[in-house]
Write a structure and sequence with these properties.
- There is one protein chain.
- The protein contains four helices and two strands; from the N terminus they run αααββα.
- The protein is mostly helical and 109 residues long.
- It has a domain of 38 residues.
- It is elongated, with a radius of gyration of 31 Å.
- The relative contact order is 0.05.
- The model has no long low-confidence stretch (mean pLDDT 81).
Length: 109
C-alpha cells in the first residue's frame, strides 16, 4: 500500500479519516452551521399543509397560497397581534368619535 510494508503503522494515520469527517471540519472552518438532527434536516424541504383549507404549499411558504392563512406559529402570532391592534385602534377611534359628537351637542345648545 503506497510503498508501505504490511507491518507498517503509517497507514493508520490516514485511514481513520472519512469523507464526512473532513467535510464537517471544512464546514466548521468556513463557519457553516451543521444540523445535527437528521429529522429536522429532512423537514427543511418538506411541503406544508394548510391547517385551514388542507392545501399543500411549498416548504418556504409563510402563508397558504389558496386561503392566505399563516402556515407557521410565528406568522400566525404576528397576524393575531396585528388583528388585536386593529381592533383596539377601532375601539379607540369609536370612543373618540363618540366624545366629539357629545362635545358638539353641548356646544350647539
Amino acid at each position: 500500500m503506497f510503498g508501505w510494508s504490511p507491518n507498517s503503522t503509517m497507514y493508520r494515520r490516514y485511514t481513520h479519516l472519512h469523507g464526512t469527517d473532513t467535510d464537517d471540519t471544512f464546514r466548521a472552518l468556513e463557519g457553516v452551521e451543521m444540523v445535527e438532527d437528521k429529522a429536522a434536516a429532512s423537514k427543511v424541504l418538506e411541503r406544508r399543509r394548510c391547517l385551514n383549507c388542507n392545501e399543500w404549499n411549498g416548504a418556504d411558504a409563510l402563508y397558504c397560497l389558496k386561503c392566505g392563512s399563516p402556515l407557521d406559529e410565528a406568522a400566525a402570532q404576528a397576524l393575531l397581534d396585528k388583528r388585536r391592534m386593529e381592533e383596539d385602534l377601532m375601539k379607540m377611534y369609536n370612543e373618540l368619535m363618540k366624545l366629539q359628537r357629545e362635545k358638539a351637542k353641548k356646544t350647539s345648545l
